[in-house]
Amino acid sequence: MMIAFGLDAANSLFASFDLSSLDFSSLNLSDLNLDWQPLAQQFQQDVTKDLAGGWNNFVKSGQIWALLIGLTLGYLFKSITSF
């Protein structure tokens, strides 16, 4: 009941707008003076080099051992607690 009232109210609100009186013929986009340069910038990025560097840092910092120990202890804990 409440949704039907909301839809009726919205319908009557938008039905009252008359868009035919708007005049877009005088709109000139070149007068807006938009600067598109930030959208057109190019950059060089080597994704595989970034991934390799991240993996090497992961191994060199010893985080891989923490991951392996955590996975092993987690699996053992799950095995012990589940019947």
Topology:
Blueprint lengths: L1 H14 L31 H14 L2 H19 L2
Describe this structure in words.
The chain has 83 residues and is an all-alpha fold. The chain has a domain at 47-83. It has three helices and no strands. The longest helix is centred in the last third of the chain and has 19 residues, at 63-81.
Structural class: mainly alpha
Q: Could you state the order of secondary-structure elements as H and E?
A: HHH
What is the share of helical residues?
A: 55-70%
Taking pLDDT < 50 over at least 5 consecutive residues as the criterion, the unreliable ranges are: none
* Whole-number mean pLDDT: 80
Q: Could you say which overall geometry the principal axes of the C-alpha atoms support? A: elongated
Q: Strand content of the residues, in percent?
A: under 5%
Number of strands: 0
Question: Rg, please?
Answer: 31 Å
Biggest β-sheet description: none
Output the number of helix runs: 3
Distance between the termini: 51 Å
Features:
single chain; mainly alpha; 83 residues
Short description:
This protein is mainly α.
